[in-house]
Amino acid sequence: MVRKSNIDFLKDEEKLRLIAAIDQAAVSIIMTDIDGNIQYCNPAFEQTTGYSFEEVIGQNPRILKSGLISDDVFKDMWETIIGGQNWKGDLINKKKDGTIYYEEARITPVRDKDGKIVNFLGVRQDVSRRKYLEEKLKQTSIRDPLTNLYNRGYIFERLSQCLEIFKRNGEGFSLAIIDMDFFKDINDTYGHQAGDFVLKEFSEILTSGIRVYDIAGRYGGEEFILILHGIKKKTSAKIIKRILEEVRNSAFAYENKEMKITFSCGICDVLEIDKENLSIESLVYKADKRLYDAKNTGRNKIVID
């Protein structure tokens, strides 16, 4: 049964039949006037957003705005539809109860018999579940399964991005390579399960010790790699020294067996390498060489020169 409203377009019998069909649609559908005020919504819209038909009539779709989409997107949307073109895009909206959800939206101008735009028809599909699964799959592809740190491939991808940003606007960063000292002895003495436990515990200390915008990854085996944004090697060394001290003072206890851990680290920053030779390989080489120096001069230390 078609619900009553005071909107003009429902007076037309042909459009009444259309609205009756739209009422049964599984996707959210709204109709607005030329100023963007909602004149109609279907039951799927009510179910998705939590707003009732009566609550949204006369309101602007901005009531769903989450603040998570750039205003430029909405500017592009409005300029496109007011210019008579269809607009299609992804939105992050907010339900009545505050829940954030993802939508695929298509907005189409509706013209009268003289070709004048009189309404806008919006068709929206909730794709939150799909977005969640896509993000989960993405995280699986870029994370190390044991430590949940970023994997080697993703770290190199981010390094490439950091280099491009540096070349474009001079925003620097440091690269640190860490190797756990005598890790083979842990596996040989206590077993590989104990070794895995230590790697996971160590990764948590590493993650909690860096800043939220820095990046930690597992480089391979017992080696780890850090990208520290916006700071040179001396400042990076201070951060990593605090991590080293925490690791030294931590008791890695597995099945009543306590293990003491240290690590060696080599650090370089992007400003150390001339632009002609600057590359991921040159950065990794310099940090890796300093790691080698740390391991060959007593371990349990950080080398920056």
UniProtKB/TrEMBL annotation:
Domain GGDEF: 171-305
One BP term from GO: regulation of DNA-templated transcription
Entries under SUPFAM superfamilies matching the protein: Nucleotide cyclase (SSF55073), PYP-like sensor domain (PAS domain) (SSF55785)
Pfam families: GGDEF, PAS
Annotated Gene3D superfamilies: 3.30.70.270, PAS domain
Ranges where the PAS domain occurs: 14-60
Domain PAC, residue spans: 85-139
InterPro entries referenced in this protein's UniProt entry, alphabetically: DGC-Regulatory_Protein (IPR052163), GGDEF_dom (IPR000160), Nucleotide_cyclase (IPR029787), PAC (IPR001610), PAS (IPR000014), PAS-assoc_C (IPR000700), PAS-like_dom_sf (IPR035965), PAS_fold (IPR013767)
Protein name, per record: PAS domain S-box-containing protein/diguanylate cyclase (GGDEF) domain-containing protein
